[in-house]
Write a structure and sequence with these properties.
Strand order of the largest sheet: 3-2-1-4-5
Number of helices: 2
Order of helices and strands: EEEEHHE
Shape: elongated
């Protein structure tokens, strides 16, 4: 099982989660394909206590990436088409555009909420020694 790994520094910790700053690997400097390509702060769940200042490795199972990508692109697209069709039949051409925009926003919000939980559960913390 191949995993995507990235190093991070622990900024804050609580019994069930840590806030880390991700340091992208050197090979990611020219790419912006994933969340690990830029320096950023994220919160991830943990099973054991980790102190601020410690270095950890975050690992994501690559088999989860396809499912998360599908979730991120397919659901908003379905909402976009449904919004256009519903708006068009209710209010004509302008309604189709308005319905598409409204349901695209709703679909994106729902997808964001769904994928946040899925993404957080997919990230595993490996403590560096």
């Amino acid at each position: 099982m191949k995993k995507l790994r990235v190093e991070a520094s622990v900024l804050e910790s609580s019994p069930d989660e840590i806030k880390v700053e991700i340091s992208p690997p050197d090979e990611c400097s020219s790419c912006s394909c994933c969340a690990y390509s830029k320096k950023r702060k994220i919160t991830v769940p943990v099973k054991k206590s980790i102190s601020p200042g410690e270095r950890v490795t975050l690992a994501v199972d690559c088999s989860n990436l396809a499912g998360m990508s599908f979730l991120a692109y397919f659901i908003p697209s379905v909402f976009l088409v449904m919004g256009f069709i519903l708006g068009y039949f209710l209010w004509g051409n302008a309604g189709g555009l308005a319905g598409a925009i409204l349901l695209l926003a709703a679909g994106s919000f729902i997808t964001g909420r769904l994928s946040l939980g899925k993404y957080r559960s997919a990230v595993q913390v490996e403590q560096d020694d």
